[in-house]
Amino acid sequence: MPNSELLLGNSLQQRSEGAEHVLLSIGDVIQERMFFHPALIASDLTLSDADQMALDAVVNGQDLNAFYQQVLTETATELELGQYKRVRVQLSHCDSNAFSALIAGSLEECETNPMLGARGVSRFASDFYKPSFALECQFIKNLREQGIDVEVVVPFVRSLSDAAKIIDRLAEQGLPRGLNGLKVLFGADTPSAVLLSERLLKYFDGVCVDLASLTQLTLGLDRNNEAVSMGYNVRNEAVLELLTQVLTQANVARKSSIVLTEGLADNTKLQEFLLEYPQCDIINVD
Predict the structure, then answer these.
(1) Which of 58, 119, 238, 248 sits between 20 and 30 A of 216, alpha carbons compared?
(2) Keywords on this record (predicted)?
(3) 94-104 pLDDT, tens per residue?
(4) Which long-range contacts (CB under 8 A, 24 or more apart) does 233-237 make?
(5) Whole-prediction pTM
(6) Which residues contact 216 (CB under 8 A, 6 or more apart)?
């Protein structure tokens, strides 16, 4: 078990009694409970026979838009979002590889390196994903209208221009940062975001570090590639140096920080490191 002094929160993957914070990842819900590409809702794509049969089995005749919102709402109810002090909803973090594996995955353009492709802000700002982004925002607005003080987590903010762009896009969708206390956190999934964290925190109310993404992009390797996977190590000195920088910047700015980890119970060194940042919320996502 992870050290009891860590501020562990709940998610789809991990639940524990007494947690004060929770993260609902829309990307995880799409992959694990929805099973179809959200762009299908606004598309006139003719599905293959196999995809059509799979879709019919999933939605059982329901309108796709209604089904999308229903699944997200049921997940929010299951997680009992209203009982937590801090509630975060992460916009979809999926890359083209993950989306292409879904029903109607043919809607995705093939990318040579999905890890470095259309993710986060670059996807949300695209014409292709705009209707899907609107659906994600509508879900968040629905929760806030129910009185749940949801904070928005934006994955893969790579630059200052990304920051300005997503703040504008959220406002266009009826989620202006600061209105009725709305907080927006940026995803420090890349070294560039960490190096710019002091300046990015002027646009945002906190930071969320996906440690798996940051590790792979810092070390320049794909942990799913057997030829280099042995080099994957979240405790690598370069990774911990970057993690130190971003968490320290959040503390100095008096803004919230979250770290998304995997296998934390078996990683004593990482636990010891995170204990040095007692204000940091931890989500174990495996």
Answers:
(1) 248
(2) ATP-binding, Metal-binding, Nucleotide-binding
(3) 999 999 999 99
(4) 234/261, 234/267, 234/270, 235/267, 235/269, 235/270, 235/273
(5) 0.96
(6) 115, 222, 223, 232
